[in-house]
Write a structure and sequence with these properties.
There is one protein chain. With about 80 residues, this protein is α+β, with helices and mostly antiparallel strands. It contains two helices and two strands, in the order ααββ. The protein has a two-stranded antiparallel ribbon with strand order 1-2. About 0% of the residues are buried.
Length: about 80
């Protein structure tokens, strides 16, 4: 679950009943209909191949769920 959370994904627990699969597919469909993409480019990109943490702050008045990655891997030299 940590990997999914850190990479901006979700976890669907194993439930192969018709209701479970249908519910998972509805959740995926809902996510796909309501996605936006933000691109982050640091002012001074360090080409060190290291993981760099980022944080997205959303105003409290926003009544929504925001899923984001916890950072990015910079390109190597």
């Amino acid at each position: 679950m940590d990997l999914a959370s850190e990479s901006g994904g979700r976890v669907f627990l194993a439930d192969d009943t018709d209701e479970g699969v249908d519910g998972d597919l509805r959740a995926v469909e809902e996510d796909m209909r309501n996605q936006y993409r933000l691109v982050y480019r640091p002012a001074e990109l360090k080409r060190d191949g290291a993981f760099h943490r980022i944080e997205l702050r959303v105003p409290e008045r926003v009544n929504s769920v925001v899923g984001v990655r916890s950072g990015y891997y910079a390109p190597g030299r």
